[in-house]
Specification:
The complex is a heterodimer of chains A (193) and B (61). By secondary structure, chain A is mainly α. Chain A has two domains: 12-99, RNA polymerase sigma factor, region 2, helix turn helix motif (Rna Polymerase Sigma Factor, Chain: A, Orthogonal Bundle), CATH 1.10.1740; 111-192, PhyR, sigma-like (SL) domain (Butyryl-CoA Dehydrogenase, subunit A, domain 3, Up-down Bundle), CATH 1.20.140. Chain A has nine helices and one strand. Chain B has a domain at 22-60. Chain B has helices spanning 14-18, 23-39, 41-60; one strand at 3-7. Chain B starts with a strand and ends with a helix. Classes of the chains: A mainly alpha (193), B mainly alpha (61). Chain A binds chain B through residues 29-30, 32-33, 36-37, 40-41, 44-45, 48, 52, 54, 57-58, 61-62, 65-66, 69-70, 104-111, 130, 134, 137-142, 145, and chain B through 1-9, 12, 14, 16-18, 20-21, 23, 25-27, 29-30, 33-34. Strand 1 of chain A pairs parallel with strand 1 of chain B.
């Protein structure tokens, strides 16, 4: 069973503390500081996972928080942490960075994740299969890759994936399953070539 | 999709990420952005057209 991300999931007390900070930030953007401190690392990691360069990841992260500060007055509490809103901004800022050719879409994968996929595909972990997997991953479209990363690389529960992508939990589950099927299809297709 | 796969990249530490954390710099960017918003064509365009509309209402209605 997958673990719950403790940084993302909040108790009622944590949510009400966060709500106080949000209300203060709506009055005065300087009061955004505690929210920035709380979420900076999470957002930086999310951005850096999807690009190569650390200074550029820091630049995109700053843009995310700048946009959040400018639009905090529009933010409406929906019973989930502010993090899901920040991830949505990060997603759009990342896409902007790819479009402007400031960053190249990067897929960061390690041994553990490769082993997970080989287990799912019922294949042996060897150099050839690794190569096929990398090629299959680079063939996925933006949304499918995002779903695979959120679920299999970052180990996020479907509820959180749904909140980040602004879709229902069940829809996130179905779409992730389809993305995995596509990945498997690309993997097997490459294998036969 | 044009993407690049990076295998087994060194994990970045919390300390390293903290070096990039700078709320003062972000606040300065925010102030600068707010200032330029005041100077933007959209802002002044809206202000001037609203003033003209109001003037028209006062004079002719």
């Amino acid at each position: 069973m997958r673990s719950i991300n403790p940084v993302y999931h909040h108790s009622d007390q944590m949510l009400s503390q966060e709500m106080e900070w949000i209300l203060s930030a709506k009055e005065d953007p300087k009061s955004f500081a505690p929210l920035y401190e709380k979420y900076h690392e999470q957002i930086f990691r999310y951005v850096f996972q999807r690009m190569e360069d650390k200074p550029l990841a820091s630049d995109v992260t700053s843009q995310v928080f700048l946009k959040a500060m400018k639009n905090i007055h529009k933010y409406e509490y929906r019973g989930v942490p502010l993090g899901s809103w920040l991830y949505r901004i990060a997603k759009s800022e990342l896409n902007q960075a790819y479009r402007d050719s400031r960053a190249k879409r990067t897929i960061n994968i390690d041994d553990t994740q490769v082993a997970t996929f080989m287990e799912v595909f019922a294949e042996e972990t060897n150099a050839m299969n690794k190569k096929q997997l990398f090629h299959a991953l680079s063939q996925l479209n933006g949304l499918d890759l995002q779903l695979i990363e959120l679920r299999y690389f970052e180990d996020r529960p479907y509820k959180e994936i749904g909140e980040i992508l602004n879709i229902k939990e069940n829809n996130a589950k179905v779409k992730t399953f389809r993305a995995l099927e596509k990945l498997k299809k690309f993997f097997n297709k490459n294998y036969r070539l | 999709m044009n993407s690049k796969v990076v295998y087994n990249r060194r994990k970045i530490s919390t300390e390293e990420i903290r070096k990039f954390q700078d709320f003062d710099a972000l606040s300065k960017m925010y102030k600068k952005d707010s200032y330029w918003q005041w100077k933007s064509i959209e802002y002044w365009g809206t202000v001037v057209s609203t003033a003209v509309a109001l003037l028209f209402l006062v004079l002719y209605i």
